[in-house]
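Minutes, methods subgroup
Present: GH (chair), OT, SY

1. OT presented the first of two proteins processed in the latest run. Sequence and structure tokens recorded below as shown on screen.
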Amino acid sequence: MRILEPRMLQYLHRKAGRDKIPLSGTFELSPCCNMDCRMCYVRKTREEVEAQGGEIPMESWLEIAEECRKAGMLFLLLTGGEPFLYKGFRELYMELSKMGFLISINTNGTMITEETVNWLRQVPPIRVNMTLYGAENETYRRLCRNPNGFDQTVHAAKLLKEAGISVKFNASMTPYNIEDLEGIYEIAEDLNIYVQAAAYMFPPMRRDESLSGQGDRFSPEEAARYQVKIDKLRLTMDEFKKRAETMKANHLEDLAEEEEWERDMREPLGCRAGKSAFWINWKGEMSACGIMPYPITYPFRDGFVDAWQMLVEKTRELYMPPACVKCRRRKVCHVCGASAYTETGTFGKVPQYVCEMTEHLIRFTEEELAVQIQSSSEGLQLQ
């Protein structure tokens, strides 16, 4: 099962991006979490939060939400930390729903009970994005320091499905849970839930700005190898073959002279961040992307409209690394502003980790395609 973004949504974001309308927003309600995942970039204890001024009260979130609504926001993601730990989350969710937002929730799922589902089903979110960290409790103990996390998460997913609430699994693959990759996909298939897995982990610069280019994660070669494994699980054989052939035939050729000239121009950040989307963290700082700690503006202090306009202007001044713009691997590589910044500490330098991962990804994909072709050929001969 695959989920493709509806064309209407793509159209809305393109139009909003041209007109600089904040169509999509994220409210990061709290950095507190009942788990302690090794690679997390946001988690703080309740004591650390209180020492930094505490969480933003519900009334303030509702006021800023009304300003966002008037400015054009339609899609709202509620996240954390663990958003269900936010004091008054149920009341906040209900009031935000009354404003007409299409709300999604990011959660680890471990706090969702029958009671939670009963009130959620009254005004269902458009989707609950639930992270599935492994295929057994032992993996949750090792990675998330929660020995019962697997049972809690799967139970929550079943409750939501039975209530008719849309669920999606996210899977962040690390050295601590990679052995569970096939099991995660098997569980998702049994529950008929789409799963999106990733082998690349951003450096946790939001937790500590000195950690650029670091992280409790795979080497570039390992990340590429496991990403190919993920691609094999999520794609049909024909889709994988098409992906591999497209890499080789269309995206890896040397650039024509005129294309080289065009690519010599500065390239702005290519995603929706700071064009039609924004993120407000638990401290009230607004950024273009939740991964990046820069640039930031202050909507609670300056008003949302002014803060959004300042964010748009600051984002407009950011560009991809020049070497990335001219690289012949550009259409294969998944480099973005967030990866450039978190890998190097700036937007102007090439993120070498991503470069190395891309080179290995191309090679491993081609090798896997050759294996699949050989296996198909041998199968035909046996027939």
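2. SY then presented the second protein from the same run.
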Amino acid sequence: MIKKICIIRDDRLGDLILTLPVIETLKEKHALSITLLASSTNQILANRTKLFQKVYVFEKGIINQFKLILNMRKEKFDWVVNCSPFKNRFYKLFIPANNKISSLFLSRYKKTHIIKKLIIHWFLKKFFNHIEVIERYEGRMNNNIIHQTEIVLKLFNKIGFNLGSPKGYEYKKNSFQENKLVVIHLSNSWLEGERINDLDELIKSINYDTDYSIILTSEKNMHSGFNNTINGIDLFKIDEEISNNDKQKISFYHEPTLDDWIKVLDMASYVITPECGCSHVATMLNKKTIIIYDDNNFPELINQEYEPYKKEYLKLVFKKNNIVEKIMGILR
């Protein structure tokens, strides 16, 4: 009888992408029925990967979580592996399995008091067979930072799967011809300090000094701080053709679906984005990706924890690097 495992990844898109190399290796090496408990953000990608027999979706609200627990209790899992922070999502405690293991992420910014740590660990041991404590502050202080994929790998190795060293996950690419196109993702990180000026200068420089077209993509509920940047720019439609001879063309793609976003990224020669989900989607597609890290939020630490797993990319840091000069040196 095939054994059943439930993997909980009910957080951000990038976190799921960093977990996929481990899940792919797990599927290749072991005959298992793999269920994913995902956030609504991760659901679409999870279904497209074909790695999971079932995908359950976490939804906010006590009633929704109660229904989710009832449905998952019927599954009779052999293992439940929680890869995500708890963030008060205590429904995870009540999903039964023969063996349950969970990560416990402690603050990266300040040391967790020993008494608090012991109480949390004692409480979680009532519901899990093993708790893998991730001491992020101590890791930062001792320069012993663990990458998110390695954390997930460690969880699975703890319960005996011995997965070795996974390769980087590659999403099946769409059948789109690569164009002289730069995609710039309008993450809210562009809005801090003077960064919006860098963004506007970068768009202008690419538009007038290169033969690349530009597509700007937005997050959901785009911040009004981008209004001046996108003012007068035509909306992009997914069925539009991008001509390599169409100079000085800028388009704005407002809140694309994940599928359409992947299609647009897959058409690009370069993807430029602050560190966020876009950086992981682009490198998952093996695109030439320029990732810009936040100079105010421990850029080296975030890079070591969350860099795309076994993927090539260029790392830049706001303020530390002249963003416009560096990128234009590549594109010219």
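Chair's summary of item 2: DSSP finds twelve helices and 13 strands in the chain.
Next meeting: continue with the remaining queue.
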